[in-house]
Amino acid sequence: MSDTHIMIVEDERDIRELLRLCVESCGYRVTTAGSVREARALLDQEIPNLALLDINLPDGDGMGLCAEIRSRSDIPVILVTCRKEGGDIVAGLEGGANDYIVKPFDVEVVKARIRTQLRSYAYWKQSNDKNGLRNHDLEIDLQGCDVKIGGKTIGLSAKERQLLLFLANHPNQVFSASLLYDRIWGLDGTGEENTVSVHIRYLRKKLESNPSEPKYIQTVRGFGYKFCWTED
């Protein structure tokens, strides 16, 4: 069995057991919890490599637990929810989740989502250090804040650079335009949320070989934007 550790937090026993069997069939080591309290006890013992969190729990919710995990680690978090409303999903993604699965789910989809998140996270960890981030032909110098494409430095405005650094430091996490506006512009902001989409467009023109089909900063329709950190 792989040493990769997946934590499943789900209060419904049948679904928890189905998820456990699904994940173990991939060769991963699994721990399970049926409540926030049990999940906290597991986290105190060991931080997993990935967490599957149900949103509705008897003593709290998965979004709050996701925020607690985010305060300890940057591991991938996948929400498992029966809520199909966009607002709930956006709240979960903005709370730090990397992805979500809606019940009833296909176990093959669950396996694929887990593999994708683990692969992306491993590549991100391998491709960056305390001095910089590297992905494909993109290099970001965290010390001097220089950004290079194919070894050539590109000129970015202060806000473009801040926006890129924020997204790149949260790989594969989705952020709404309003949250990005608040984080980057804050009280200094004088425009609307449209400011974010304009800056995203400028960044794509400078970073992407084909801005209409971006491989770095991608739009998640109906939710916001994410920096896609993959080896592909």
Question: Would you give an account of this structure?
Answer:
32% of the residues are buried. With 232 residues, the protein is of the alpha/beta class. The strands form 4 sheets. Strands 2-1-3-6-7 form a 5-stranded parallel sheet, with helices on both faces. The protein has a 5-stranded antiparallel sheet with strand order 8-9-10-11-12. It has 2 domains: 121 residues, Rossmann fold (3-Layer(aba) Sandwich), CATH 3.40.50.2300; 99 residues, Orthogonal Bundle (Arc Repressor Mutant, subunit A). It has 8 helices and 14 strands. This is DNA-binding response regulator. Pfam families: Response_reg (PF00072), Trans_reg_C (PF00486). One of its GO terms (biological process) is regulation of DNA-templated transcription. GO terms for molecular function: phosphorelay response regulator activity; transcription cis-regulatory region binding.
Could you name the key traits of this structure?
232 residues; alpha/beta; Rossmann fold; Arc Repressor Mutant, subunit A; five-stranded antiparallel β-sheet; Sig_transdc_resp-reg_receiver; transcription regulation; CheY-like_superfamily; phosphorelay response regulator activity; WalR-like
Short summary of the structure?
With 232 residues, the protein is an alpha/beta fold. It has eight helices and 14 strands. The mean pLDDT is 84.
How is the topology of this model organized?
Elements: E1 5-9, H1 13-24, E2 29-33, H2 36-45, E3 50-54, E4 56-57, E5 60-61, H3 62-72, E6 77-81, H4 86-94, E7 99-102, H5 107-126, E8 128-129, E9 132-135, E10 138-141, E11 147-149, E12 152-153, H6 158-168, H7 177-184, H8 194-207, E13 217-220, E14 224-227
Parallel strand pairs: 1-2, 1-3, 3-6, 6-7
Antiparallel strand pairs: 4-5, 8-9, 9-10, 10-11, 11-12, 13-14
